[in-house]
């Protein structure tokens, strides 16, 4: 037994039943509203092509190495992210203050989930809109009215937000290992299948050439410093990195699983799904005279138009939004997990369901700032806009990149090469060297550069 194996501590909690279970959990976390709702909406607002290019570069050059860092730290610490950061900080850098990074992550998860749950609530509402036949033959105006009816009422939006949070708390209370695995294994392929079906529709009935050009023809004149920051922020958001969610999952990872191969697979799948979603939505947008920069309502206004024209579209719509709800659900669970394990491991004897309920109620309450943002408080704007827009901007584009920066600097500079090589398995030599190059130089410098570049526009 090598020295490092002796160091490898006994986990405070269970392990994934298999390597596949871990891959599914991380993919379940990564694939969600970020891919299908947020990516098309922010690509549209930021002019398409050039933004997409920057996003892709950020995902692979910055997001991927950070994901690997989170998993390796999680597995080495085998605790909740706060305790893991403190413990590894002490072992590798002589100070427990690194725990602060975990605390910031827990807070980021609270704020992100507070609005994520509201958007997910709309998705759940659309399962029923679809089933009721409301999209059948609907035109652009009618589809817009459906969206306003839901988003314009705080009672309706608040109701679905409440339902979604309740379902999330329910799973987290039982422990993430159970249930999640089966849900992701069956439902994720189904969601991908539906997206491909819609892609065929978009190719036939949409303005596919224009959609393609919008997403892939980089017009650098359209790209602003804040657009670059949004692309960076979204790279973190879509991969679920920068706040310890993936670190929390890494804590349950069996010692023999390959971190590099897993991360590459998850990142490629996550990116492919976002691109397909874009390729579905923009041709529909252009063929129907919708505004690509319509904002957060984009998928809720474009997709129903497609469903309304498909044979059996009501059922297809209902199933699609059901699957998207599940994808959002598995992401939401990962946003809560760090806070809940932290509480459980801190307060000895505190049952998981109590921790999950307390965290859930706080996030649910905070969510009303977003619930009100599209109705009673829609005129109340400051800094980046409504409460929703500010919470989203600050968490995705400021807090996650700072959290990610701290994590990658820790893995690249504070941890010894021995420790990281031990976790990452340097047998794949070039992979390890690339990771270390990015963790030490590329990722930190890029994040700092993008921040400085955007300061002028903040
Ligand atoms: N990645 C998820 C999505 O794209 C959202 C998400 C889950 C997340 N966990 C996260 C974002 C942790 C940031 C941090 O929908």
Key descriptive features of the protein:
458 residues, mainly alpha, 78% helix, 0% strand, globular, binds tryptophan
Structure description:
The chain is an all-alpha fold and 458 residues long. Helix content is 78%, strand content 0%. It contains 19 helices and no strands. Helix 4 packs across helix 17 and helix 4 packs across helix 19 (429-455). The longest helix is centred in the last third of the chain and has 34 residues, at 313-346. It starts with a helix and ends with a helix. Residues 1-7 have low confidence and may be disordered. Residues 29-30, 32-35, 112, 237-238, 240, 243, 245, 331, 334-335, 400 line the site of tryptophan.
Provide the fold topology.
Layout lengths: L2 H5 L11 H12 L2 H13 L3 H29 L3 H13 L5 H33 L8 H12 L2 H21 L2 H29 L2 H9 L8 H15 L5 H6 L8 H29 L10 H12 L3 H34 L5 H20 L15 H28 L2 H8 L4 H27 L3
Helix pairs in contact: 2-9, 2-13, 2-15, 3-11, 3-13, 4-5, 4-10, 4-11, 4-13, 4-17, 4-19, 5-6, 6-8, 6-15, 6-16, 6-17, 7-14, 8-15, 8-16, 9-13, 9-15, 10-13, 11-17, 11-19, 13-14, 14-15, 15-16, 17-19
How much of the sequence is in beta strands?
Answer: under 5%
Structural class: mainly alpha
Assembly status: single chain
Ranges with pLDDT <50 over ≥5 residues? 1-7
The rounded distance between the terminal residues' Cα atoms is: 53 Å
Helical element count?
19
Estimated radius of gyration = 21 Å
Largest sheet features: none
Counting DSSP E segments of at least 2 residues, the number of strands comes to: 0
Mean pLDDT metric: 92
**Cofactors, ions, other ligands:** tryptophan
Shape: globular
- Helix proportion: over 70%
- SSE run: HHHHHHHHHHHHHHHHHHH
């Amino acid at each position: 037994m090598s020295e490092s194996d002796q160091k490898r501590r006994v986990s405070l909690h269970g392990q994934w039943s298999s390597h596949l279970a871990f891959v599914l959990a991380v993919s379940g976390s990564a694939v969600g509203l970020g891919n299908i709702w947020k990516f098309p909406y922010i690509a549209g607002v930021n002019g398409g092509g050039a933004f997409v290019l920057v996003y892709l570069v950020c995902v692979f050059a910055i997001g991927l190495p950070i994901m690997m860092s989170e998993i390796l730290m999680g597995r080495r610490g085998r605790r909740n992210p706060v305790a893991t950061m403190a413990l590894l900080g002490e072992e590798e850098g002589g100070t427990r203050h690194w725990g602060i990074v975990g605390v910031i992550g827990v807070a980021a998860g609270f704020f992100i989930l507070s609005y994520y749950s509201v958007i997910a609530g709309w998705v759940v509402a659309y399962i029923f809109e679809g089933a009721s036949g409301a999209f059948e033959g609907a035109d652009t105006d009618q589809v817009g009215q459906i969206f306003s009816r839901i988003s314009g009422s705080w009672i309706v939006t608040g109701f679905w937000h409440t339902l979604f949070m309740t379902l999330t708390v329910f799973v987290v209370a039982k422990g993430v290992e159970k249930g999640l695995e089966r849900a992701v294994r069956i439902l994720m392929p189904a969601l991908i299948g539906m997206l491909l079906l819609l892609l065929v529709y978009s190719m036939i009935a949409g303005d596919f050439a224009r959609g393609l050009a919008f997403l892939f023809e980089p017009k650098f004149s359209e790209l602003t410093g804040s657009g670059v920051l949004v692309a960076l922020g979204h790279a973190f958001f879509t991969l679920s990195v920068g706040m310890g969610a993936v670190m929390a999952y890494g804590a349950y990872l069996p010692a023999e699983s390959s971190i590099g191969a897993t991360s590459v697979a998850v990142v490629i799948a996550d990116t492919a799904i976002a691109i397909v979603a874009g390729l579905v939505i923009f041709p529909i947008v252009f063929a129907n005279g919708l505004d690509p920069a319509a904002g957060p309502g984009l998928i809720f206004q474009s997709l129903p138009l497609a469903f309304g024209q498909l044979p059996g579209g009501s059922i297809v719509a209902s199933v699609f939004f059901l699957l998207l709800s599940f994808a959002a659900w598995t992401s939401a669970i990962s946003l809560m997990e760090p806070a809940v394990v932290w509480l459980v491991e801190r307060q000895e004897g505190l049952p998981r369901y109590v921790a999950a309920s307390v965290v859930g109620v706080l996030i649910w309450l905070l969510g009303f700032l977003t619930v009100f943002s599209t109705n009673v408080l829609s005129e109340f704007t400051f800094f980046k806009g409504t409460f929703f827009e500010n919470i989203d901007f600050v968490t995705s584009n400021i807090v996650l990149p700072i959290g990610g920066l701290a994590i990658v600097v820790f893995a690249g500079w504070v941890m010894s090469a021995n420790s990281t090589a031990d976790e990452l398995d340097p047998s794949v030599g070039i992979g390890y060297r690339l990771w270390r190059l990015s963790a030490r130089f590329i990722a930190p410098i890029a994040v700092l550069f993008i921040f400085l570049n955007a300061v002028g526009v903040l």
